[in-house]
Structures are given as C-alpha cells and as structure tokens.
Specification:
Layout: H1 12-16, E1 22-26, E2 36-37, H2 38-50, E3 54-59, E4 63-66, E5 69-72, H3 76-85
Parallel strand pairs: 1-3, 2-4
Antiparallel strand pairs: 4-5
Length: about 140
C-alpha cells in the first residue's frame, strides 16, 4: 500500500524478486494534505505492468498535480472516480489462495464469496480492482 503517496517510490527490485503481489496507491486527503504527482503514480503503474502485478490507483488525494497543474479535489468520491478514469490501474496476474475452514478442510470453489458491484456507484470506483464488492448497505443510494 503506497498511501498516502507523497513522493516517488521505486519498487522494481521487489517486483523483480517476486515479493509483491499487488499494489494499492492513493494520494493524501483532508486539510493540510500534501500533493500527489501523476508522474509518481505512473511510475508505480508502469513498474507493476512490467511484472504483471495488479496496480490499483484508488484515489488522487485532495491535491493532485499533473503536467504542472494542481487540481484541488476535496471530495473522496471524485478523487476515486478521477483515479479510475486516469487509466493507470492495471489488472495483473491472478493471485491464488489456498483457503481452508477453521478445521483445516479446503473450502470448495462453489462455497466462496462471489463479489458483485452496484451498477451506478461502483462503475467508476478507483478501488474496483481490489474491492470485495458491494455489501448492499444502502449508504450510496
């Protein structure tokens, strides 16, 4: 998790060694937050793509800088939508888990939770790649 991303981060040596399975990235939020730069996010995205690792740009942060221009985005929903629209997120190779119940027996594929997503509010959510789906809580209606 590279959040809040307040400077460039180079993870290539860890990706080369196969030590990272997925990366979530987001800018800092709220009053006094430091800016997140597009170039920093793009560098992480490019590195993850090179090694087929899922990269999820979840939110821009309150202040996002791209091509020398600073954007003030105080609303977290808008931050998430803008991160999604950036096209920087990337679905890498699948992560496989060996899941067992409390007694150590394998959990069958048909018994696993299957996520679903709200057709409107989840459509352009920055967290979509790594989200467990909608819980139908009703908060977003």
């Amino acid at each position: 998790m590279a959040a809040p991303l307040i400077g460039p981060v180079d993870i290539e040596k860890y990706l080369t060694a196969g030590q990272i399975e997925q990366v979530l990235c987001g800018g800092e939020n709220y009053d006094g937050s430091r800016p997140c730069h597009y170039e920093w996010v793009k560098m992480l995205s490019d590195q993850c793509r090179k090694y087929e690792v899922t990269f999820d740009f979840i939110e821009t942060g309150t202040y996002f800088i791209k091509e020398g221009r600073t954007y003030c985005i105080p609303d977290k929903k808008t931050q998430s939508r803008q991160a999604f629209r950036s096209g920087l997120s990337y679905k890498g190779k699948e992560i496989h888990f060996h899941l067992t119940d409390e007694w150590g027996y394998d959990i069958l594929e048909k018994e696993l939770y299957e996520p679903h997503y709200h057709p409107v509010t989840c459509k352009e959510c920055g967290s979509r790649l790594t989200c467990n789906g909608c819980s139908d809580c009703g908060k977003c209606s």
